[in-house]
Amino acid sequence: MSMAAAPALAEQPARAQTARKGKPTKAPKNDLKPALLFILPAAIGFLVFFIYPAIKGFYYSFTDFELLGDANWVGLENYQTMLSDELFWNALWVTLEYVVINIGVQTLVALLLAVLMQRLTTSLLVRGVLLLPYLIANVVVALVWYWMCNQLIGIINIGLEAIGVEPQAFFGSPVLSIPTIALVNVWRYVGYTALLIFAGLQTIPPQLYEAAAIDGAGEVKAFFKITLPLLRPVLAMVLVVTITGSFQIFDTVAVTTAGGPVNATRVIYYYIYDLAFNRYHFGYASTLTVALFLILALVSFFQLKLMRADQTDLD
Amino acid sequence: MSTSTLEPARTASKRRKRELGDGPELHTHKAIGVHKKKLNPGRIIAWAVLILFMVVTLFPFYWMVRTAFSTTTSLAAEASNLLPADFTLGAIKRVLGLQSFEESLAQGGSGASMDFLLFMRNSLIVSTVVTICQVACCSMAAYAFSRLRWPGRDAVFFAFLTALMIPPVFTMLPNFVLMKDLGLINTFLGIMLPTMFMTPFAVFFMRQFFLGIPREIEESAAIDGAGHWKRFTRIVLPMSSAPLITLALLTFITTWNDYMWPLLIARQPAVETLTVALGIFKGQTPQSGPDWAGLMAAALFAALPVILLYLLLGKRLINSIGFSGIK
């Protein structure tokens, strides 16, 4: 979750416009000494817990490290194993299915919610309620839905029965388990995503809508001709952040299905966890984290390119 | 993407008013709703949809509370009862370890002794220490990245930001090995260390705010002979109380909710955090079937502190959501 939250929140400096943003002033002094002292604690954390382990993880991916004993260099062996590992491809496939359902539904619903809020209300209460699930631990969310989805006495199946639908094993069926987990997390993240998009909507000049209304354009036309095109850079950022987060699904799977039934929900994060901490294949597990890293970097890169996230049509 | 919602310069009094709760900066919005206030069928449907979403958002919370006050053995018979099934405080007592073995079994518990107050204490310790240390260290770094001039500043800042691109699992395996080598498995320190000093986001977040503080105030303090430390603690930090609180709230909640890392490190009740304990509780199913009431009572304990904090400080958080200054 920390990753998903990362670039998406920022407090507006209260006087941003009057401030000289980021431009160094022409004071003659060089502040290197105090600067080093100021960044020292953070730099230690950065070097010891981000950079060093990142390098070490990359190194492990070329070894047969098993947690106990030494790490022996095996070259590309792990990578070759990975390419012919059916469970790896299964994990990728399952994760992809999760991401597509999760992001597809979430983005559409969030867009709808954001536009509804834009049209109807700026109420803090409405936004506050919609954001609430995002602040609750994945584990809690997973357990509450796991209980509500219980096949025999869960309230959702009781409700389905009342309208004549057969009770479903939402978490227990190989077909339904991934869509179920994806939708549970839509519930958790959709309000947050909606607020991000809502903030983006605030940047669209209202005059455009007024002009469109005068020209006789309806709500639907205004949405497709004004809102959507002008929202593109914001949507691109939202998608990069949410897709990157979505690929890292772990908590929900770990406390509900633990990868099952069979391998139906063995997502990539869970497979890595399983390899490293249940079977102690640290070297091979590291290879998979390198692969995941590359996949995420590529996905983000192409998204930003395709959606021209750094250009606005507002000028 | 540039910050397109820059606010006009505000007078000090206006700003104070805003900090006191003058509502969000949504002034551009008022003009958007061309049909504002006119209730037509379209708006009624739109409101209905929005309210439906709010109900769907809130219902699971109600269901968690409803189940936490139910008797597990009565849940099956009263599955469609929207009120607690056979109301009892038993499940709450059970997860706090206040229920006798016999009573626990009779109400559908496993009889195993649980102590969610202990897990709550553990979560509190971990989240509080991480929050204080991380906010302090990252504010200091942000000060160096925004207010001081030194060679390589922007390059180092950029390096910090690239850590955002690394998926947590990538560093998690080596960090686990490091903790194991340091003998920090099953210690609070082991859970806290990786995020105690910095996260790229916290540095970025504070720097973003510090950049907006006018230099003139600081410069006049410098003329009076105040050193950097004094300027940082006496001028910059007090002026940044709002973003500091927002960041602290976010860091606290993120740490509180974290599951994977504490799951690897904390394998003994003495250091287990709430999320880890919940996962273990779910795994221990009594023969009679899962203890749903107990599980929901425990989940409630994990959710409640965050909800209370949110009610207290959430307004700032809600208003600060949005993109800004990311290229």
Structure description:
The complex is a heterodimer of chains A (315) and B (327). With 315 residues, chain A is mainly α. Chain A has a single domain, classed as MetI-like fold (Orthogonal Bundle), CATH 1.10.3720. Chain A is 66% helix and 0% strand. Chain A is built from 13 helices and no strands. Chain A has helices at 2-5, 32-60, 77-83, 86-120, 124-135, 138-148, 155-162, 177-201, 206-214, 219-246, 251-255, 268-278, 282-306. The longest helix of chain A is centred in the N-terminal third of the chain and has 35 residues, at 86-120. Chain A is globular and about 75 Å long. By secondary structure, chain B is mostly helical. Chain B has two domains: 42-112 and 284-327, no CATH class; 134-269, MetI-like fold, CATH 1.10.3720.10. The termini of chain B are close together. Mean pLDDT of chain B is 84; it is low at 1-35. Classes of the chains: A mainly alpha (315), B mainly alpha (327). Chains A and B meet through helix 1, helix 2, helix 4, helix 5 and helix 6 of A and helix 2, helix 5, helix 6, helix 7 and helix 8 of B.
Question: Brief overview, please?
Answer:
The complex is a heterodimer of chains A (315) and B (327). By secondary structure, chain A is mainly alpha-helical.
Protein topology:
The complex is a heterodimer of chains A (315) and B (327).
Chain A lengths: L1 H4 L26 H29 L16 H7 L2 H35 L3 H12 L2 H11 L6 H8 L14 H25 L4 H9 L4 H28 L4 H5 L12 H11 L3 H25 L9
Helix pairs in contact in A: 2-13, 3-13, 4-8, 4-10, 4-12, 5-8, 6-8, 8-10, 10-13, 12-13
Chain B lengths: L11 H8 L21 H28 L21 H6 L5 H6 L9 H31 L6 H10 L5 H14 L6 H9 L3 H11 L4 H9 L4 H12 L1 H17 L2 H6 L8 H10 L8 H28 L8
Helix pairs in contact in B: 2-15, 5-8, 5-9, 5-12, 9-12, 10-11, 12-15, 14-15
Got a strand count of chain A?
0
What's the main sheet of chain B like?
A: none
Top-tier CATH class of the largest domain in chain B: Mainly Alpha
Global geometry of chain B: globular
Radius of gyration of chain B: 25 Å
Shape-level CATH architecture of chain A: Orthogonal Bundle
Measured by residues with Cβ under 8 Å of the partner chain's Cβ, the largest interface is: A-B, 134 and 140 residues
CATH evolutionary superfamily of the largest domain in chain B: MetI-like
- Tally the helices of chain A: 13
Overall body shape of chain A: globular
Overall pLDDT confidence of chain A = 87
Rg calculated over all Cα atoms of chain A: 24 Å
Q: Structural class, from helix and strand content of chain A?
A: mainly alpha
CATH superfamily of chain A: MetI-like
How many domains comprise the coordinates of chain B? 2
